Amino acid sequence: MGVLCLKQKTNEYKLLTELYFRLLPYQILLLVINAVNGIVDTLYASNAIGTAAMSAIGLFGPINLFLSAAGIVLVSGSQILYGRYVTTKREKLRELFTVDLLIALGISLVTALAMALAVATGLTRLLVAQQPDLKMLNQYMLGQIIGIPPLLMGQQLFSFLSLQNQTRRTMVASVACFLCKLVLDHLFIVIFRMGTFGLGLCTSLSNWVFFGIQAVYFLRGQSELRFSLRAWQREEGAQIVRLGYPGAISRFGEMLRCLIVNILVLKYVGSVGISSFSASNSLLAIVWAVPFGMAAVCRMLFSISIGEEDRRSLVNTMKITMTKGMLVMCTIVALLVLLAEPLTRLFYRDPAEPVYQMTVMGFRLLPLCMPWSMVSIHFASYAQTAEKRVLAVLLPTVDGVVGVVLFSFLLIPSMKMNGLYLANTCNGILCTLVVIVDSWVVRGRFPRNMEELMAIPERIGVPENERIDISVNTMAEVMTVSRQISDFCLQRGIDRRRAYFAGLCMEEMAGNVILHGFKMDRKPNHIDIRVVHKGNDLILRIRDNCIAFNPAERASAMEPDDMGRNIGIRMVYRIAADVSYQNLLGLNVLTIRI
Length: 594
Description:
This protein is an alpha+beta fold. Helix content is about 75%, strand content about 5%.
């Protein structure tokens, strides 16, 4: 039995690992879009316009952070609700889709109007007063305005497409956006000499390309999700914001932090420090897409695991990102440190200039905070999804503003720019301590493993003795499923008839997957079976990574007089009180209630 349990754990872990790394590239792509816009802008700004243009991009940072934070509120809130609705309240998905897009449109229009008024009335002087920095900032903001609605709404569409396993379309949209940005930047900056206004306009037009390619899928009616003003529900909007705001606290904090840090850098280093930080930070923004992409994948998996009340998948998801994901992150950090000088030369060529050496140290020191930040980012995402409200608010608050500002005040006066770079690493260590202390307080003892560190609320899932998890890969293993499930049911006091039918249903469906699903592709296939006894409910779930297959469609397509075919599927639908199927993130999930 010990060997069997170890094998079961390994098989389920493999299934989640495969799903995690299949989803990860597409989530990273969404975040890379903004990062690419930033890096391309800074390259053209530093090489074709000048240092003042670099300062304009840096001064626009707080606005970018606000837009990013607003997008995260909606994306994370809608993802959490999607994970809950998709298995139990599928009819609410349409109103969730509509409300999410309407809020995104409203926020983007208000933001665009506020930016236009700020430029027209001279309020941008609050960010910078001297010329030519003020003029270039105003021009950059004007170019960005028309691209804000497609930016926020495009993020929402990307999230819904990912949840519906439409990763190919998201890939096409991301690549098209990137190519559009490259072409337009060269056209507007080098050929037409449009300055920082051209930089902003390139980003806006690229955002429209990104949004348009994704919107076609929904406009053609290819999705079950439909936009309809009749589906507007104010309560649904409140739910999205309530669940999503903890995920954006860090970004709103970063907006405030950016303002404070800019003041400190200008005071102790000068505008050359802003230019240095803009260069290193814009390139590292692409790298930050990796941990934030990992967190986005985890948030999807967390929400579905909580919707299914699956504690084991919840813990295994965190284990995957803290081991395999962390290894990827550490490798990237090591490469960045080694390539510090070549990366600096993308922006500045003269080693004798102060900005050159500051940027080199930025590439050597800033990446060191990333592995520590992995812990903070993922535990904040988990706390938000599990509605652990104290940790969900405390952790992003410390990470977003308190930690970096505190250490910046302590280190920048004496260490100048190196102090700012090291402040980010000190902040990551502080956030890791917050996670450990939170678990210690909640559980009353020092955490000794991942499950204890996560301190999963008791309301999520069921105890070990109320569930059984089985993974099978062969027909020989399928033959043991019925006995294992029947024995589990009898031990739980379930009557022999229900126990027998529960085992028989799972054996039939697992055998059907191996006989048909395993032959349809060449990748390694896995089946994960889970049986839960909660109250008077007996819930059976079978999950596999084969091609999409809905047994309900097969059952409805059968001729009544052809009783000799698909006997197993017919039997399951006769026995079960309820059978539901979903294709979640590319996995077949069949849930049976007996």
